[in-house]
Amino acid sequence: MKLSLKTVAPFLVLLVVALVAMFVTPEADYVPGPTETQYSTADIAWVLVSAALVFLMTPGLAFFYGGMVHRKNVISTMIKSVVAAGVVGVLWIAVGFSLSFGESIGGFIGNPSTYLFFKGVKGGPAWPLATSIPLSLFALFQLMFAIITPGLVVGAVAERIRFTSYILFIVLFSLLVYAPVAHWSWHPEGFLAKMGAWDFAGGTVVHITAGCAALAGALVLKRRKVHQDNKEIPPANVPYVLIGTGLLWFGWFGFNAGSAVGASPLAVNALGTTNTAAAAAGLAWMFFDVLKGKKPSVLGFCIGAVVGLVAITPAAGFVGIPQSIIIGVVGALISNIAVGIKQKSTLDDTLDVFPCHGIGGMVGMLMTGIFANQLAHGIKDGPQGLFYGNPAFFLTQLKAMAIVVAYSFTVSFVIFKFINFILPLRVSSEEEELGLDATQHNEKYLQGTLLVHDNGKMEDKLVEHGL
Questions:
Q1: Considering the entire predicted model, what is its pTM?
Q2: Mode of pairing for the β-strands spanning 109-110 and 457-465
C-alpha cells in the first residue's frame, strides 16, 4: 500500500503525544497533610465502581447499534463506538480534562495548561464539588462520559461514513463541542452553571450535544442508497440489541448514581429514578406501538428503555422516584412520535439518534425544570421546579437548552463540512453497496450456527452474514 500524509498522520500524532507524555513527572494522589484526611474510602470505592460501569456502556452501545444495522455493516458500526475509548482516552489525558475542568476562561472554556497531560491532577486539591475523592478519580470518572458521547453519534451516520473521517470527527467534536459544553454546565464558573441551569448527569452535556451532532452529520452525509430506494433493512441481530440494552441499563446506574460523586442518599435516589424511568419508558414505547397497530416487539421495548434512561439523566438526582415514571413515559412518547415524523421525511438518521438522544435529552432537561424538588435531593440552594412553584427555574432550563442545541448543531455541522473538505467523509457508492465491514476493515460478520432443513434432515450449518 502506498503511504501518504493522510495515512501516516494519525500514527505520527499519537507518537508525538506519547513522546511528550514520557517527560511529564509522575505524581502521587495521597500527599501528606490535610488533603489525605478528607478522602472517604466509601466514596472512592463507589466512584471507582461507577467509572467502570460507565465504561461498560461503550461496548453496550456497540452491541445496541451493531444489532440494528445491516449485517454487512455490523463490525464497522461497532468499532466506531468502541474506538472512541482509544481516541478520547488519550485526548482526555493530554488536554481534554483541562479544557473541560481547568481554570475557567470567562466561563466558556478551561485553560488548556491547567492540567495539561494530567499535570497537577494527581496530588492536586480535590474538585470543589467532589471533595471526598481524589481529583484524579473525578477526572477518570468524567473521562467515561467523554468517551461515550461521540460514540452515540455513530448511529446517525452508520453505513456510509468513512472510518478515518470518523476518527477525526471524534477529536474535533471532543475539543470543540463536548469540552466547552461540559465546562459551561459542570464547572462552578461555567456560564450555564452560573446562570442557574442544572444537569445532574449529562442530559445536556452528553445527549443533547451528541443528538445535535447526529442531526448535523446526517444532513451533511445525505441519504444512503437504500434510504433513497425506500428499502427496509432488517436488523442484523436483535439479540445483540437486547444484550446492548442490558449493558446500557446496567452501566447507567454508574452514569447517573455515580454522578452524586459519593456513596450518599443522593446516589440512592439517582439509582431509583434511573431504573424507574427506564422501566416506564420501555413499557410506554411498546404499548404506544400497539396502539398504532403494531405488535409488541423486543426492539420497541429496548429503544423505549434507552430513551427513558436518556430523559432521566439530567434529572436523576433532582426529582423524586415517583416523578421519574412520568418523565420516562413522556420522554418515550415524544421520541416515538419524533421517530414517526422522521421516517416520513427525507432525513436519513440511520438509527434515530436525534429523535431518541437529542430530543430525549431536551425533554429530560425541561422535565428537570418542571419536577426538580429540594425534598428529593436535599442540596442547599439546589433546583426547585415549575410543578412546585418556581417557573423561573424552568425558564432557565429552557434558555440553557436552546443555547446548547444551537451551539452543538452549528459547530458539529461546521466540523462535518470541514472534514469533508480535507478528507472524503463518505464512502463511495460501490463501497456502500459492498458494505463497510469488508471495504473499511477487511473483516466479515459471522452469525453463529442455524438449524437448516436439508433433504428432510435438520443439521447445523455455519451461516456467514456479510458478502
A1: 0.93
A2: unpaired
